[in-house]
Amino acid sequence: MTAPDLPTELKAALDARLQGVSRNEAAGSAASISRTYRDGGGSAAIRSETDALAYALARMPATYAAVTASLNALRQITPHFAPQNLLDVGAGPGTASWAAAEAFSSLQHFALLDANSALRALALDLAAGSSRLRDIDYRRGEARAALADADPADLVVASYMIAEVGDAERGALTGLMWAKTRDTLLIVEPGTPAGYGRIISLREQLIAVGAHVAAPCPHDGQCPLSTPDWCHFTQRLPRSRAHKQVKEAELPFEDEKFGYVALTRAPVAARSARVLAQPVVTKIEVTAKLCTPEGLVIAKVPRRAKADYARARRWRWGDAGAAED
Ligand SMILES: C[S@@+](CC[C@H](N)C(=O)[O-])C[C@H]1O[C@@H](n2cnc3c(N)ncnc32)[C@H](O)[C@@H]1O
Fold first, then answer.
1. Angle at CA 78, nearest 5°, toward 61 and 8?
2. Which residue has the CA at smallest separation from atom 15 of ligand 1?
3. How many Cα atoms within 13 Å fall on the side-chain side of residue 258?
4. Using CA atoms, how far apart are residues 218 and 201, in angstroms rounded to an integer?
5. Integer Cα distance of 230 and 233 in angstroms
6. Digit-coded pLDDT (tens) for 74-126
7. 0.90 exceeded by the pTM?
8. How many other CB atoms are there within 10 angstroms of residue 36's CB atom?
9. Which residues sit with their C-beta closer than 6 Å to ligand 1?
């Protein structure tokens, strides 16, 4: 499985881009972009080279970690999946392409598309020195138009992108992305109730036209969670010095909350219960919230069931295979 921190080549490329850029200017730009996001705006606020770099320094480590965790979960369920080509929709600085390149050595062709010129320019610059990514094909354009012209790919990914597409357009975009998916479509979103809502609705839309869920759900049925609960996961990632400076943060790590769904054309052979929150371990029992093919289960594994208890102590939020490993 792939580590959640940025690959060495990408870190070096980001550091090189940072040479000669004022950290204060980058931090100011990152703060203003974050404010725009908090106020419900999107990446349209990213216009200049410094904006694009500030966005990448502040957010790329976290979105990379979330995509990597989602790809790790997918690989665990479909270990023989070996995509040759990738389509990265709303690719921004190329985060998901970098994560997919690390996860799948089989990938040979990377097609990216995005409406934002500054992020596209940065992505091309970051990829220029990479052995795997230097020949990426990165189209600038509005997603629906650019998708219509794109070749189908074994793996299609939209990472932290759907949130920026209006409600009215989302269904059509989802349909188009699925039409371009030969094998697997992965959607990653912020781990908020709103992100979950978007994932659930596109999951439902695509199951209705024949898609199957590979992860995180162990079934293609209705999600058993109900408001105010929502399905999400968390990934811890290290913060580099530049990352801390741009975010004006002290802690050497951050925890990224994310949601995802991986949908496949073929039914998935074996799916088992997924751990939906960090289990509570006491000396008496392990209590774990599990999504199972039969619905939501709060599993209690008593200490006296020695072997089961020892196994349950190792369960982590997001793991698959609980209740049977
Ligand atoms: C939050 S960024 C995520 C970038 C990247 N996928 C990542 O995970 O770091 C969202 C990206 O989606 C792009 N985007 C949003 N709506 C779009 C649209 N309708 N057509 C093309 N790109 C779009 C934005 O330009 C931006 O680069």
1. 25
2. 164
3. 29
4. 17
5. 10
6. 999 999 999 999 999 999 999 999 999 999 999 999 999 999 999 999 999 99
7. yes
8. 15
9. 43, 60, 63, 90-93, 95-96, 114-116, 119, 142-143, 159-161, 164-165
